[in-house]
Design brief:
The chain has 10 helices and 7 strands. By secondary structure, it is an alpha/beta fold. Strands 3-2-1-4-5-6-7 form a 7-stranded parallel beta sheet, sandwiched between helices.
C-alpha cells in the first residue's frame, strides 16, 4: 500500500470531510489517529450520532489502523496529551490534517456583523481558527522531526473563490479565509524542515449533515436536485479523502507548499475519482454555471 508505515492524525475526524479523509488514508495503508468530541458514550453539542469510534472502525476496515481518541482541540492540555500518546505509541507523525470545524449550527446566513449573534459568531471563530492553531502548535514539532511531513488545513472555498466572493456572513467568511492564510503562513515555517503545508477544500460535499438537510441518503442523493438543481455537482467526503491520500503519497508534494487546492484540482492532477467514477469540479462549476445564474448542468464538470 502507498502509505504503509505512515502515521496520520485527522483532527476533527468524526464525520464529513474528516471521516472521508481518515478512511482514504486507511485505504492506502496508514495508521490514522481520529479525534473529535463525540464518542459512543458522550456526544458533543452537535447532538449528531456519528462517533470517532465509527470512523476508526471504517479506517481499519479499509485496510489501515484506526485509533479513536476523544479530544477537545480548544483544550491545549488535551492536544498535548494526544501528541505525547502518538509519540509514545508510533514514534512519528507524517501527516496532520486539521479538519476541526463545528460551526454548521452557529452560522447565521445573510446577516451583517451587527445582526449576527455575537457569541455564536465568536464561538465559530474559536472552533474554526483557534483549534487549528492549538493543534499545529503541539503537533508540528513531532511532524518536522522527519523530513517529508504534510500538513493539510481543510477549509471551504479556494483562495481565489473566497477572495472574489463574500461567504454570506462576516464570521463564516473570516473563518474560512483565515484557514487558507494559516496554511500559507505555516508553509513558510515548515519549508526549512522539508515539510509541506497546503489548504484544501472539498466541493459541495454530501456530508451526513448535508444529506439530512436534503432528506436523502447517499444511494438516492440525486433526488435532492429536485429541491436544489445545482446539487448535481456534489461529491462524497471520500473524494477529498482521496485528494489527501494522493498528496501524502506524492514524493514531490513540496511543489504544492503554501498553495490553496481543491479536491477537483487534485483529481485532475493525480487521476483519482469519486466513488461513482466521476471527477466533480465544484469550484469551477460555481464560477461558470451557478453564480452567473445558468441552468444546472454538470456536463463537463464531473
Amino acid at each position: 500500500m502507498a502509505l504503509s508505515g505512515t502515521v496520520a492524525l485527522v483532527a476533527g475526524g468524526t464525520r464529513g470531510a474528516g471521516r472521508g479523509i481518515a478512511v482514504e488514508l486507511g485505504a492506502a495503508g496508514a495508521t490514522v489517529y481520529v479525534t473529535g468530541r463525540t464518542t459512543r458514550e458522550r456526544r458533543s453539542e452537535y447532538g449528531r450520532p456519528e462517533t470517532i469510534e465509527q470512523t476508526a472502525e471504517l479506517v481499519t476496515e479499509a485496510g489501515g489502523n484506526g485509533i479513536p481518541v476523544r479530544v477537545d482541540h480548544l483544550v491545549a492540555s488535551e492536544v498535548a496529551a494526544l501528541v505525547a500518546r502518538i509519540r509514545e505509541e508510533s514514534g512519528r507523525l507524517d501527516v496532520l490534517v486539521n479538519d476541526i470545524w463545528g460551526g454548521e449550527y452557529l452560522v447565521e446566513w445573510n446577516k451583517p456583523v451587527w445582526a449576527h449573534d455575537l457569541e455564536r459568531g465568536l464561538r465559530m471563530l474559536r472552533l474554526a481558527v483557534d483549534t487549528h492553531l492549538i493543534t499545529a502548535h503541539h503537533a508540528l514539532p513531532l511532524l518536522i522531526e522527519r523530513p517529508g511531513g504534510l500538513l493539510v488545513e481543510v477549509t471551504d472555498g479556494t483562495e481565489e473563490y473566497n477572495r472574489e466572493n463574500y461567504r454570506l456572513s462576516p464570521f463564516y467568511d473570516l473563518a474560512k479565509t483565515a484557514v487558507t492564510r494559516m496554511a500559507w503562513a505555516h508553509a513558510r515555517d515548515l519549508a526549512p524542515h522539508g515539510a509541506t503545508s497546503v489548504s484544501l477544500t472539498p466541493g459541495w460535499m454530501r456530508s451526513e449533515i448535508m444529506l439530512d438537510e436534503f432528506g436523502v441518503a447517499e444511494h438516492n442523493w440525486r433526488d435532492a436536485t429536485e429541491r436544489e438543481p445545482h446539487f448535481v455537482v456534489s461529491e462524497t467526503p471520500r473524494f477529498v479523502g482521496r485528494a489527501v491520500a494522493a498528496l501524502a503519497a506524492d514524493p514531490d508534494r513540496a511543489r504544492w507548499n503554501g498553495r490553496s487546492l481543491s479536491s477537483g484540482d487534485l483529481a485532475r492532477e493525480y487521476g483519482f475519482t469519486d466513488l461513482d467514477g466521476s471527477q466533480p469540479d465544484c469550484w469551477r462549476y460555481l464560477r461558470e454555471v451557478m453564480d452567473p445564474g445558468k441552468p444546472a448542468d454538470a456536463t463537463g464538470y464531473r
